[in-house]
Amino acid sequence: VLASLETALEEGGVTCLADNSCSFEDGTCRQSGDGTQTVIEYSLVQTTELSNSTVLSRASSIVQELVDGNKLSFETTYSKKRATVSLNGVADSYTATEKTGCEEGQASEDGFCYTCPVGYYVSGSTCSPCPLGTFNPTEGATSCTTCPDDTTTYGTGSSASTQCMDLCIVPGVTYGSTVPPTGFRVTDDTVVTLTCADGKATDTDTFTCGSGIDPECNAAQKVTDESDSTTTIVIIVVVVIVAILVAVAVFVIRKRSKRANATSNVNANPSAGGRANTGV
After folding, report:
1. pLDDT tens column, 56-68
2. What is the pTM of this model?
3. CA 155 to CA 86: how far, in whole Å?
4. CA 255: distance to chain centroid?
């Protein structure tokens, strides 16, 4: 009955069924309370051009016209009895509730439904990559599988259990940066390069992730250049020697000056004494 009804609707002008922009789903048949009628319920689910809101409304209008105009007639054959039954739509019996969406395991983008690939899962109406520590090997999945204990993945979007590995997380370094960057998941034998900030230094520029080494960037030691030190010492020595020579020169000059004054005094005394003798 349901397959015959779908065919009748498609032939009757419900174009979304003909061009596969909607699908006939969730059909059920039951007898009315008095047993004189068959009640058929079904869904037309829009699967493409989701931004086009007229697809289902147009389909619903066409079905309404077919039913109310007594144009919806179809036959179905029961295989057990080989009996053919004709069904006709009853006027004013059609009701519809619009439903727009994609099938389970599908996401929508720009008005179209598509199946999420491996390594992804359906999250709302979009495909999202499997988070760190999870993987998904099938298309159209609605969830991802968690890696075994003590293992994780390199990044997001993993598609196989073989991508779950014993990994090392690159540690953070105060006043420094690393390559690969801090927080990256790498294999235990990955060599990490460390660069310290200005004014900081480290004992090692590289280390192996997972080796137990705890790299640090500390205050850099002030290194004095030997040639500069020698130059400084020479300059100091020269300055001291010059100061000593200046002091010696000043001392000699002062000493000579005193001798000269003493000689002048001696030469002046005899003259004074002669004048005294003359007076006697």
Report:
1. 888 989 999 999 9
2. 0.41
3. 60
4. 87
